[in-house]
Amino acid sequence: MPSFSLPWVIGPVPIVITIWSAYVCGMATLYRKGMNAERIVSAFMFSIGFTSIMLQLFFGKYSFAVLMLMDQFTSCVLLFSFFIAFIRLRTNEIASPKIERDIKSILKAFLVFSLCCVIFNLLVLLIPPSNRCTIGKCFVLELLFGSAEYAFSKLYLLNIFGCMFLVGIASAATEMFLKIRRSKIL
To answer: Which of 5, 72, 94, 146 has its CA 20 to 30 A from that of 12?
Structure first.
């Protein structure tokens, strides 16, 4: 018989957001719609929710540091695959960036995102989030996002920022590669 005692391992907010995101991404794929803000946010939240849930279910006993880095990387890969799918569904080719930036500004963006990602991950790994929850605000967060005793709630919340930094790194690296390739330096 299932236990409905609170707090759950995976809270109701990530479940609802992931289901909504899966619905929006599925409908966009089914009806061959391109990208807009709703689909970008839904692809981002689906990739974060799906990978965090899968890592909690199948790899929950591993080290938190390994889980966090795996979660960020797989979320970034899943998000980029959604972006490519949404673009190809609409135009059947990968669109180039609309704004042309010089190589220095692209390299600067790459370095800033890389530095932010390294600092963020080092801070999280050196000062890990605690498992204890003693005040009311923390109890409400446990009810909404899941129990702090398990890795899911920490993975889900930390992956939002970590995935943003990795997406920035990947998009700057991709833009830099395409810029170099177009200018025939390679």
So the answer is: 72
